[in-house]
Specification:
Radius of gyration: 15 Å
Shape: elongated
Oligomer: single chain
Distance between the termini: 27 Å
Number of helices: 3
Number of strands: 0
Largest sheet: none
Strand content: under 5%
Structural class: mainly alpha
């Protein structure tokens, strides 16, 4: 029987979440330095922060691997 360490699974899921968030931030990092696009870029960055904050909360609350998978979708 295979036993899954839920804490390690959560750690892996958080790493996946961080990588996905960084990929979404990458194009906005440049735009945030352009004065005419900075406000729109910061608004988009805040949307991404909020989205991934809810994913982080869902991962932390997960009790099964299926819950973690669902949080990452």
């Amino acid at each position: 029987m295979i036993t899954i360490n839920i804490d390690k699974a959560k750690s892996v899921a958080h790493d996946m979440r961080r990588a996905a968030r960084a990929a979404e931030f990458a194009p906005l990092d440049i735009k945030a330095t352009i004065p005419s696009e900075a406000a729109a870029a910061e608004a988009a960055r805040q949307f991404i922060r909020d989205k991934y904050a809810s994913v982080q909360t869902a991962i932390d609350a997960a009790t099964t691997v299926d819950d973690i998978k669902l949080a990452l979708e």
